[in-house]
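user: Please supply your own:

assistant:
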Amino acid sequence: MILDKAIRRIHDGLAKGLMDKNLLVKGGWALYRAQVMPHDVSDIQLLETRQAFYAGAQHVLACVMVGLDPGTEPTDDDLKRMDYLLEELEEFANEMLARLQPQPKGNA
């Protein structure tokens, strides 16, 4: 679990740095492309996957912005909504990590 904590610290630092440079989604896309997409992906698949990636990011941000309660301070409901979003996306991230892990070769 020490490695998990170290990776989380690196990820969090990278995310903050990208956000500070207005590159969060672009950086996320680059990471996704490098880790998930095949190197010989077709141009059309690359274009459509990028569109889906950015559309998902735009959808989440738009929903968060309209879902926040009025005012300058977060409300308990705001925090609950963010916790729900975190849980939903962590579940997806765990599914993706499981898919990306090398599968042990068995003796069938």
In short: The chain has a mean pLDDT of 89. The two ends are 32 Å apart (CA to CA).
